[in-house]
Amino acid sequence: MKYLDKLPSHKYQWIPLLYSIVYSLKPKKIIEYGTEWGGTAITMGLALKDLYETEGHTGKVFTYDTFEVQSKGEIGSRPQFEAAIQNMRQFGVSDFVEVNRGDFFDFCAQEEKDFDLLYFDIDNDGEKVLEMYEGCKQQIEAGGVVLFEGGSKTRDDVKWMNDYSKRKMESIKDITGYKLLTPDTKYSVSIIYNPNLYNLDL
């Protein structure tokens, strides 16, 4: 994994894990919601670039954000569309990452969805994770893998989750079957997949 030392600096300590997951699963189509400034899209793009250069594997990240406009329930920053594109160029992943404007909730409502890997990070809470799961259950059963920011007890207890009375992600763990991939820390990541199709060592 030759680009592990080229990853963008990020508050998420599990960025190398995201790279490793993409490298191991070898997805052809990755969909991301919550581009923000592009840190996770760049990470996944570098993994795909690595796979292309070493194995000839062709894959692409299609990353979406509402950018300057806040979507339902978002409390975070308002990143700039052009800045995200420039960041992809800076890290040399423009051929592997396509930046788009789009709303996660419109995606969830679509009947037809096509992805090998879905990653989303939109100020996640239990309701958003559940809406994603219900909207993508068919794709998950067919082999689609979902990664999402959050899932730990510590992440459920951050100030804004309590201030806005957001539903805890732990409350829908049994429904979705998600597995926490990181320790019980604020910056955590979780996975949902069909265990009948994947023998993941988690």
Structure description:
There is one protein chain. By secondary structure, the chain is an alpha/beta fold. The protein has one domain: Rossmann fold (3-Layer(aba) Sandwich). Helices cover about 35% and strands about 15% of the residues. The protein contains 8 helices and 7 strands. A 7-stranded mixed β-sheet has the order 3-2-1-4-5-7-6, with helices on both faces. Helix 1 packs parallel to helix 2 (about 40-55). The longest helix is centred in the N-terminal third of the chain and has 17 residues, at about 40-55.
Per-chain topology:
Elements: H1 15-25, E1 29-33, H2 39-55, E2 60-65, H3 81-90, E3 97-101, H4 104-109, E4 117-120, H5 126-141, E5 145-149, H6 153-156, H7 159-163, H8 173-176, E6 179-180, E7 189-192
Parallel strand pairs: 1-2, 1-4, 2-3, 4-5
Antiparallel strand pairs: 5-7, 6-7
Helix pairs in contact: 1-2
